[in-house]
Amino acid sequence: FYNKLEDEINDCYYSGFPNATFFLYRKMIENLLLEILRNKFSGREELWWKKEGDFNQAHSLSQLIKNLYEQRKDFDPLIQKYIEQAYPLLKKIRDIVNPTAHNIYEYFNSIVDLKQFKIEYLSQLIISILDDTQKK
After folding, report:
1. What is d(CA 8, CA 105) in angstroms, rounded to the nearest whole number?
2. Looking at residue 111, what DSSP letter applies?
3. Residue 98: pLDDT band with limits 50, 70, 90
4. pLDDT value at position 99?
């Protein structure tokens, strides 16, 4: 799943579509965080899943970021460091994407606008965290 999504994100990026790139990337990050929390805390479903009567769904990106950061002490020290490095970048993505996702008048003008999010660096941090949760 992630390889196909990564290919689509890269296609959007190299085709010069910054908004599509950013929104797909945000969705990938959201799913990776969900998977990290599910892998690491399999017995604590409330960290990634919310149940409201008959309606169940994954937590929002904001809540997933918050839950990962708050649970960082349950990870090995190196992974804690990765989470602490990823946290401000994740918050920046959340802070930008939440208002723009609901307002078609706010958008990125070029791929250069995406550099502020350090997508490649953040992706490597998130993948390292995910890899750690899959080892155990």
Report:
1. 24
2. G
3. low
4. 58
Residue 132 DSSP one-character state: H
Residue by residue, DSSP assigns 45-89 as: GGGTEEEETTEEEEPPHHHHHHHHHHTGGGS-HHHHHHHHHHHHH
Predicted TM-score of the model (pTM): 0.88
d(CA 37, CA 100): 26
Contact 83, 75 (CB under 8 A): yes
pLDDT tens track for 25-63? 989 999 999 999 999 999 998 898 888 777 788 888 999
- In angstroms, the CA 61 to CA 94 distance is 7
As a whole number, the mean pLDDT across the chain is 88
| Residue 104 pLDDT > 70 | no
18-47 core/surface letters (b: 16 or more CB in 10 A; e: else): bbbbbbbbbebbbbbbbbbbbbbbeeeeeb
Q: What are the residues whose beta carbons fall under 8 Å from the beta carbon of 111, sequence distance 6 or more? A: 13, 16, 18, 21
Which amino acid does the sequence have at 52?
Answer: E
Residue 9 has pLDDT above 60, yes or no: yes
